[in-house]
Description:
- The protein has one domain (8-161).
- The chain has no helices and eleven strands.
- The protein has strands at residues 55-56, 59-60, 62-68, 71-77, 86-87, 98-101, 111-113, 122-126, 136-140, 147-152, 155-161.
- By secondary structure, it is an all-beta fold.
- A hairpin with a 6-residue loop joins strand 9 and strand 10.
- 0% of the residues lie in helices and 30% in strands.
Amino acid sequence: xxxxxxxxxxxxxxxxxxxxxxxxxxxxxxxxxxxxxxxxxxxxxxxxxxxxxxxxxxxxxxxxxxxxxxxxxxxxxxxxxxxxxxxxxxxxxxxxxxxxxxxxxxxxxxxxxxxxxxxxxxxxxxxxxxxxxxxxxxxxxxxxxxxxxxxxxxxxxxxxxxxxxxx
Length: 167
């Protein structure tokens, strides 16, 4: 049965296990399920996956433009949910409050707001070109605050909270 709210043209399910040079970083969770974001749209509809050739374990990165502290620049995030790897703005200190933008239009990402009473407010990346509020990835606006959520059709399908002090 095909559900009308699933973008089947861009859905891929694979049994392939990504390979990571540092085997201490977990890329899978119970039952070896890996959630990979293969498309993520900014507020004007630009796909932010695969913009520049940066990959993580063969999967194209999600690219954002970030301002924080006295720094700004492109940041490439792993599209593997639960993978904290990123490339760019390494000089930012953990805990820095940031502004997140679409790297194409430089439009600020839509705000979702605070969720868990923590230091972060969340910004939205949309999972389909329809830019529906019920199908989003919630990203923290605090540098190295590794909390995110994936919501599809208003249902939480994945959540990640890093096991670190102060989380």
